[in-house]
């Protein structure tokens, strides 16, 4: 499957812009929506008529962290099947707990090198 409709939830503007450029370098036809607030994003998802095919979620967010977002999204019938990838610069104990708790969640560490970001995203987007 190749994802063509992506939601990125990340409050770091620079990281979000790099992510967007990396996705566009993989396939310029991919539609990417960027939200900088997980709580607002969740509310928009609940009301959306067209849902993303995959969500990339920064773990460390204000108002609602990655674990809280996952718990709430998995409680909503129309949203629980959307694949989620935790996208974080850290892979510490909290992240590992979340991945263990939500077994269907993938993890992608934010990379410093643009080519590494593209390669990692390509594996997920084209899987």
UniProtKB/TrEMBL annotation:
Which parts of the sequence carry 4-aspartylphosphate? 58
Q: Per UniProt, which keywords does this protein have?
A: Phosphoprotein
Response regulatory domain span = 5-125
A Pfam family annotated for this chain is: Response_reg
Protein name (database record): Response regulator
- Native source species: Flavobacterium hungaricum
């Amino acid at each position: 499957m190749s994802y063509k409709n992506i939601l990125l939830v990340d409050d770091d503007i620079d990281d979000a812009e790099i992510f967007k450029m990396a996705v566009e370098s993989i396939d310029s036809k991919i539609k990417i929506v960027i939200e900088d607030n997980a709580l607002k994003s969740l509310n928009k998802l609940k009301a959306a008529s067209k849902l993303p095919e995959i969500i990339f979620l920064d773990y460390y967010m204000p108002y609602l962290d990655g674990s809280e977002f996952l718990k709430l999204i998995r409680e909503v019938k129309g949203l629980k099947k959307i694949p989620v990838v935790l996208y974080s610069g850290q892979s510490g104990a909290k992240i590992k707990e979340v991945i263990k708790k939500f077994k269907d969640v993938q993890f992608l560490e934010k990379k410093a090198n643009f080519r590494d970001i593209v390669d990692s995203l390509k594996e997920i987007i084209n899987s």
